[in-house]
Please model this.
Amino acid sequence: MLAEDDLGSQRERYEDPLAESYYEAFETITRDSNHELIVAELNGTVIGTLHLIFIPSISYQGRLRAQIESVRVDTEYRNRGIGAQMMLWAIELARGRGAHLVQLTTHKSRRDAHRFYKRLGFGASHLGMKLNLK
Amino acid sequence: MLAEDDLGSQRERYEDPLAESYYEAFETITRDSNHELIVAELNGTVIGTLHLIFIPSISYQGRLRAQIESVRVDTEYRNRGIGAQMMLWAIELARGRGAHLVQLTTHKSRRDAHRFYKRLGFGASHLGMKLNLK
Model:
């Protein structure tokens, strides 16, 4: 799913077996209590992913912030509310852990995603800036 | 410094002694090897802060991403390259740890900050979206 869209296809390697680096990242993430990797399943097939990260912060009076990355839904299963269900689950989990904020960045070209997040209550208050390292 | 600017003054509590929540966050951050809290010092006084976070990721072939938060320089010491020095230090550290990307969000109203990050090579490719929780 990560390799499937225009942006993802330039940066992922989808092959069988999958590159070892994916497995290592998965291990690291699942061991760390500040990370939650969520998948949506339908009859045993993964049709959605979401990565929720808790970040302790010195700003905002030292409160926890929650961040969301790698939100993807299988193209065949879009527009059925699966992404929204995953997001609402993540937002509730963030609230339960006492986070004051949920944040994410989304590429300026992903207009459908902007509408999707706005419907969930997110405001586009910030610029998301990236520096690619070699 | 966090409480000093227009946005910060609405969300920080600067008092002596500082709220316990700040100290607890500081403890959590310093214990976690995925976090680096950097301060710039001049004659024993802290005049700048930067929080660097390493985030393992399942996208980008499982590579590490680096994120920067809480970049502040004391108003009396701005425009002297202190912020740039902290940023360049953080970028080098991120490169050294094998991160493929350094990311940050900055409020749309912080135009000086946008120029500052662009000079350092950051592209404003993304929207930064936030959802405040009660």
About this structure: Residues 64 and 87 of chain A are 18 Å apart (CA to CA).
